[in-house]
Amino acid sequence: MKPSILVARAVFPQILTLLEQHFEVTANQDDTVWTPAELIQQLQGKQGVFTTGSQRIDAQLLAACPDLKICANMAVGYNNFDLNAMTAAGVLATNTPDVLTETTADFGFALIMATARRMAESERFLRAGLWTSWRYDMFAGSDVYGSTLGILGMGRIGQAIARRGAHGFGMKVIYHNRSRLDAATESACGATLVSKQELLAQSDHLILVLPYSPEAHHTIGAAELAQMKPTATLVNIARGGIVDDAALAAALKQGTIAAAGLDVFDGEPNVHPDLLTVPNVVLTPHIASATMPTRLAMAQLAADNLIGFLVNGKAMTPLNPQVVTA
Ligand code: DGY
Hints:
Layout: E1 4-7, H1 13-22, E2 24-26, H2 36-42, E3 48-51, H3 59-64, E4 70-73, H4 83-89, E5 92-94, H5 101-116, H6 119-127, E6 148-152, H7 156-168, E7 172-176, H8 183-189, E8 191-193, H9 196-202, E9 205-208, H10 222-226, E10 233-236, H11 245-254, E11 259-262, H12 273-277, E12 281-283, H13 292-310, H14 322-325
The structure holds (2R)-2,3-dihydroxypropanoic acid.
C-alpha cells in the first residue's frame, strides 16, 4: 500500500502528478488556508506532509498526528517548524536550500536598487498623473554603485548578494554574522566582517538575510535604526519579525533613515498599517524566490524529499537527520 501524504497548499500540477505516482495524495488545489485545527484534521492517517512555510508544525500538532513521519517544507526558511519538537517526536524536517539562492539574491539586489533609486514611489507619482515637468532633484535617491553594502546574516543568500555587490557594483561589502566566513569565501565575496554596531553605522545599504529565531526577533528596532546613517536604506528579505515594523515606519516618517524595501512582514500577509502610509518604502508580498524555474525547483526538491524518505528511506536535505540515524 502506498503511503498517504497531504499537500497542504496548491502546488504545480506536474508535482502533484509526480507525488501521485508514489503516494495516496490529499491535495489542496483550491489553496484553502487551514486553521491549525483543520490542518490537524487533514493530517490524520498521513505519513508525510508537503508544507509551504506557512503551516505551523509544533508539539501540539505532532501529538495529534501520530502517523506523521516527515514534513517537507517548500522553502529554505523553516521558522514554521518547531525543530526541537519534531526531533523529539521522531519526525523528519526538510527544506529547500541552494535551489533558490541566486534567484533570491537577485531579488534582494532588485529591492536594494528599487529602494535606493525610489522606483516605487516615483512610479506611483507618474501613475497618479502628477508628473508635469522635469526637476533637478525629482526623486533623487542614493547611489548603489561604489557605496557600502552591509549584510546581516552571511549564509548562502548573503554571500550571493555580496558577490553581486562587490564584483558587479564596485561596492565595499561589510557583513555581520554569528561566525566568520573562511578566508577563501570572504575573498570570493569581497566581504569584511564587522561588529553589528559598525555594520549599522557604516552601511549605505543594509540588507537582512538572517534566519528567523526567537532570538532574532526585532534585531532591527528603534535603537538600531537610530545608529544608521540618515541617508541609509534598509532591505529585509529574511523574515517578518526580524524588523520592528512599527519602529521602522516611525523612522521612515522621521527621516531617521532614507528608505526601506520589505518583502517580509511580521504577521504577513497582514502589513503594519503605518507602513502603508509612508511613501519611502517599497513593499512586496514575499516574492524573493518567485521565478517559475526556481519555484518549480523548490517544489521538486520538497517532493524529492518526501519520495526519498518515505519510499527510498533517504531524504535529500534533512534538517534533523538525527531522527533517521537514532
Ligand atoms: C524561503 O524559501 O524561505 C522563502 O522565504 C519562501 O518562503
